[in-house]
Design brief:
The protein has about 450 residues and is an alpha/beta fold. Helices cover about 25% and strands about 25% of the residues. The protein has two domains: about 220 residues, Enolpyruvate transferase domain (UDP-n-acetylglucosamine1-carboxyvinyl-transferase, Chain, Alpha-beta prism); about 210 residues, UDP-n-acetylglucosamine1-carboxyvinyl-transferase, Chain. The longest helix is centred in the middle third of the chain and has 13 residues. It binds shikimate-3-phosphate and phosphoenolpyruvate (PEP). This is 3-phosphoshikimate 1-carboxyvinyltransferase.
């Protein structure tokens, strides 16, 4: 993976977004969830024995997590591996410091790994991409300090040194649910466990905290979440596991959106019956925007009618879906209003500003509000769609490009953050690169129907 200081060659390259020649009709098999993979790797590195993590996502964010855990003393061995999927065996080791960790632009690495580093006696230094230095870190670093760790810095770059004792802490997690998840994930290994109390405006992305609690319980950790905005993790062992990672439902978003934009059909196999993934909300969101959404044996099928309805929606809980929903809104036949996502100004980029700027650059009418966007559909024209090194901005540009000739997405390679095979899979969905013979391959695969 590229180091943050050296930008990959061709990073500013423009990718001509393919226009759909007709309705898409494809089955899109997505690699594993970023959020599940990075939690599973971290819990395995802290567990009481070796774990197997199957069908884990292989991407920049998960490679960074794997590298961080190795640096801290765990042994991670890949077995079966394809471009975007891997089976890991993880053997925990004593957590050691004296190392430097690159978080890239990964929220899950910058917020989940420092509490693990606080178990080490030697200092661990953290840094990342230039854009990562702008992402909020203060609340979790303050919490680590209050729980006994030595922390220098309030944002990237910073240094953490243990040993941490744990106990009770109050923090404001309104800038990111990851502030809470990070403390809970390592909390069972703190001498006193951890009680996290949130105080401030509502915590966003709650399904992601539910995912954390669910995965901790699956690993035998006692978690009490019975009181709103308070989470208690008892100290104790984290059980080693054999776990298969669900497909990434947030990465399904642009592919399913293509069904709406083209009036076609996209099926995603292995859509879980029950899940804590935020992307599961797509079933309702896309239906509200005019799609027919059906569960088919083992999967989810979304069909578009050729028209997209505008939407009024609060995306506070599922904010990572905002770029795709905004792209659809720009192509809809009525106005849309997205609310509840003020905190995505602190995601990979200020997503509210970026979406408004890029939609308007193509001739659209998108207005920033304090906590979201108002989008009035207008005929769009081709032009450059800047991605700001943000994978979901890049895929939003691809969605618009399906219907608008001449859209050029800057740095499509940034999709490697969570889906390195995006451009190939997109072309295959559109029938541009032929059928993929590896339908059963563990990574991303697309079959034309
Ligand atoms: O815990 C996680 O895996 C995530 C939590 C959310 O972060 P925020 O709470 O900062 O939105 C989400 O947007 C991000 O993509 C992944
Ligand atoms: C917000 C996101 O990522 P991160 O895990 O870096 O916060 C995202 O993937 O949309």
């Amino acid at each position: 993976m590229a180091s943050p200081q050296s930008e990959p060659r061709g990073a500013r390259a423009l990718w001509p977004a393919p226009v759909a020649a007709g309705p898409v009709d494809a089955t899109v098999r997505l690699p594993g969830s970023k959020s599940v993979t990075n939690r599973a790797l971290l819990l395995a590195a802290l567990a009481d024995g070796p774990s197997s993590i199957r069908r884990a996502l292989r991407s920049r964010d998960t490679d960074l997590m794997a590298a961080a855990l190795r640096a801290l003393g765990a042994e991670l061995t890949p077995s079966d591996e394809s471009a975007s999927s891997v089976d890991w065996t993880v053997r925990p080791g004593p957590i050691r410091g004296g190392v430097a960790i690159d978080v890239g632009l990964a929220g899950t690495v910058m917020r989940f790994v420092p509490p693990v580093a606080a178990l080490a006696d030697e200092p661990v230094s953290f840094d990342g991409d230039p854009a990562a230095r702008r992402r909020p870190m203060g609340p979790i670093l303050g919490a680590l300090r209050a729980l006994g760790a030595h922390v220098e810095g309030d944002a990237l770059p910073f240094t953490v040194r243990g040993p941490i004792t744990g106990g009770e802490v109050v923090l404001d997690a309104s800038s990111s649910s990851q502030m809470v998840s990070g403390l809970l994930l390592a909390g069972a290994r703190f001498e006193k466990g951890v009680t996290v109390r949130h105080s401030g405006p509502p915590v966003p992305s709650m399904p992601h905290i539910e995912m954390t609690v669910h995965m901790l319980r699956q690993a035998g950790v006692a978690v009490d979440d019975s009181e709103a905005d308070v989470w208690r993790v008892e100290p104790g062992p984290i059980r080693a596991r054999d776990l298969t990672v669900e497909p990434d439902l947030s990465n399904a978003a642009p592919f399913l959106a293509a069904a709406l934009v083209t009036g076609g059909t996209v099926t995603v196999p292995d859509w879980p019956e029950r899940t804590t993934q935020a992307g599961d909300r797509l079933r309702h969101l896309l239906a509200e925007m005019g799609a027919t959404v059906t569960r088919v044996p083992g999967g989810l099928r979304v069909s578009g009618s050729g028209r997209i309805a505008g939407i009024e929606v609060d995306l506070h809980d599922v904010s990572e879906l905002t770029p795709t929903i905004a792209a659809l809104a720009a192509l809809a036949d009525g106005p849309s209003r997205i609310t509840g996502v003020a905190h995505i100004r602190g995601h990979e980029t200020d997503r509210i500003a970026a979406l408004a700027t890029e939609i308007n650059r193509l001739g659209g009418d998108a207005r920033e509000t304090e906590d979201g966007l108002e989008i009035h559909p207008r005929p769009l024209r081709g032009g450059v769609f800047r991605s700001y090194d943000d994978h979901r901005m890049a895929t939003a540009g691809a969605v618009i490009g399906l219907a608008v000739p001449g859209v050029q997405v800057e740095n499509i390679a940034t999709t490697a953050k969570t889906l390195p095979e995006f451009a190939r899979m997109w072309a295959e969905m559109l029938g541009e690169a032929g059928d993929d013979p590896r339908e059963d391959a563990p990574g991303g695969a697309v079959t034309q129907e």
